[in-house]
Design a protein that fits this description.
Elements: E1 7-11, H1 16-27, E2 31-35, H2 39-49, E3 53-55
Parallel strand pairs: 1-2, 2-3
């Protein structure tokens, strides 16, 4: 696993590309944080990608 013991932050995660990037990082072992301007969609992404994925609210 290329990203094992690494942390990643994916912006724009509610979009199809962002979600695909987050899913790949998780598959490669990264603990992944996702964010987007739409917090409802970020919650859906986290639920879909599972426990290795965490939401990071936009600032």
């Amino acid at each position: 696993m290329e990203f094992e013991n690494k942390v990643a932050l994916v912006t724009g995660a509610a979009g199809s590309i962002g979600m695909a990037v987050a899913a790949r990082l998780i598959a490669e072992g990264a603990r992944t944080f996702v964010t987007d301007l739409d917090p409802q969609h970020v919650g859906a992404v986290v639920r879909r990608l599972g426990p290795a994925c965490r939401a990071q609210p936009p600032t």
